[in-house]
Amino acid sequence: MTTNNIALKTWVDEVAALTTPDTIQWCDGSQAEYDKLIELMVGNGMMEALDQEKWPGCYYHRSDAQDVARVEHLTFICSNDKDVAGPNNNWEEPAVMKEKLTGLFKGCMKGRTMYVVPYCMGPVGSPYSKVGVEITDSPYVTVNMKIMTRMGQQALDKLGDSTDFVRGLHSTGELDPERRYICHFPETREIWSFGSGYGGNALLGKKCHALRIASAQARDEGWLAEHMLILGLENPEGEVKYVTAAFPSACGKTNLAMLIPPAHYKGWKAWCVGDDIAWMRYGEDGRLYAINPEAGFFGVAPGTSEKTNKNALESLKTNSIFTNTAVSEDGQPWWEGLSEAPANATDWRGNAWTPESDTPAAHPNSRFTAPARQCPVVSSKFDDPEGVPIEAMIFGGRRAKTAPLVFEAFDWEHGVYVGAMAASETTAAATGAVGVVRRDPMAMKPFCGYNFADYFGHWLEMGKKSEKAPKIFHVNWFRQNDKGEFIWPGFGDNMRVLEWILKRCAGEADAVETPIGHVPAPGTLDLEGIDIDEVTLERLLGVDPEAWHTELEGQKEFLETYGERMPAAMWKQFEQLKERLTAVSAS
Ligand code: GTP
Ligand code: SPV
Ligand code: MN
């Protein structure tokens, strides 16, 4: 590992002086280094080797039972001005937060190794990629970073002697939830994370850098950093069109990103560019291009099966890390929904488990970390420095009622409003209550590094930059009947909705205008081979004015929270929606 970067070396020295580790290890990102770290962790019990014949290169980690998800109430955006962080974020003055954190970090790596982990978000050769360095005392974090990012020497080479890198400081501390903070300093492009070893709290390249810091940087530089999958759809003629989709955590991005089209879609192929984050900017041709800043998947395990997501299962068969799933007595990872339950297993807490146990074997937010390159349908453009051109952007969420299966926004400005008003039932990806409907604008509620009012303003500006901006849609796979059952088959069958979306982009499908947007005209949504009766279809595509009037009240309340800062265009969209809804109610 070599670098002459003075700024980096100086910072590493400063951090070492503060945290006093026993040793410092600069990570080169090599396989040998990775293997040694795994060996170290298998030796000290942090990792367990899975059955190496069936799961070559796969290992298991059980995190602290109090440390199994992102902690939104302990996540802070410490911009200089509170209003810049906005009502959507927890805020503290940078100097005050740094003083508090300095106290926590002081001497925290005593007896530990400090790993210096340089990483590149995005293809190393892309001018749109960004370098970061995470300093961490967790070997688990270090090996995960190797899968999730382009890590090590390649990132240092890209950085050269530039001072332009995100500085991420991480320590697991004592894993005490009372002494846990995930803090971002957007102006100085710094992240300080203390007291957690889990996922989005600790793998700083992901949500902390690629979304919270990057969204603020994107605002300054005129691009977009979004919580979106990137998917290519190839038609039988071999033409590939790309879409992005923003759904909240655990609402179907990984699944949609590698979907398998239904049997009768002969000659159609779906290609995965990314499953969680998209960085987008306009190309010289005026089209919006997306790159995936990540190199791996940190996917939700429960529900992942041959039937729902075969490509994810193929991706995670080798060289993967399983966190908080269950492990069968013969060393197989297992989770609810994967297959028939093993007769005897150890659950995510480390307790003996059998199918008769009345608690889940895997934590609902248990995850796999798998290299994206192992995905059977990884896009040939995965490493393309220019990224892929986007036809359509899709917003969505988990809504039992109100939101129809799909609708198209009238134009960009309306589309921004639709994305901004997205709401979803909460999931196990963050600590707190599950199943409560909350507003999650553009699936960015936990990840926007600045004031949502300014963020919507930035989105509105992005639409004005080009005539060729993508079309905007909204989907909902999670509509339920009165018995609480999903009425849309979902998963691979979501292809049907994607095809309608692509047809709309090409001007090839009819739609019916409703107060909230355009829904598929009768007969334009391909329902061949699935059992959807008229009543169900009506429920799927229906827009209930009464439910939407209630929804309007929630939207108004939300807009008001942002006071004067909320762009006038958003209020205009609100008024227009209200008028359209009132008109249908009166008729
Ligand atoms: P994060 O990694 O947290 O950002 O989540 P994600 O958006 O990638 O969600 P993921 O694809 O992992 O799906 C989460 C859960 O939703 C899994 O249990 C899936 O089985 C389930 N799911 C995904 N797609 C569908 C669908 O179309 N219909 C239904 N009913 N469930 C789905
Ligand atoms: C999410 O919660 O949206 C995730 C998982 O993708 S984590 O990396 O923990 O944020
Ligand atoms: Mn996510």
Structure description:
With about 575 residues, the chain is α+β, with helices and mostly antiparallel strands. The protein has 16 helices and 30 strands. β21 (about 345) and β22 (about 350-355) form a beta hairpin. α2 (about 30-45) runs antiparallel to α5 and α11 (about 410-420) packs antiparallel against α12 (about 450-465). The model has no long low-confidence stretch (mean pLDDT about 95). Manganese (II) ion (MN) binds near residues 227 and 249.
Number of strands: 30
Average pLDDT confidence is: 97
What share of the residues lie within helices? 25-40%
CATH class of the largest domain: Alpha Beta
Shape: globular
**Domain module count:** 3
Ligand names: guanosine-5'-triphosphate, sulfopyruvate, manganese (II) ion
CATH topology of the largest domain: Phosphoenolpyruvate Carboxykinase, domain 3
Tally of helical segments:
16
> Low-confidence runs (pLDDT<50, min 5 residues)?
none
Tell me the structural class: alpha+beta
Biggest sheet character: 9 strands, mixed
**Known CATH architecture of the largest domain:** Alpha-Beta Complex
Compute the separation of the termini in Å.
Answer: 72 Å
Q: Which percent band covers the strand fraction?
A: 15-25%
Radius of gyration from the alpha-carbon trace, in angstroms: 23 Å
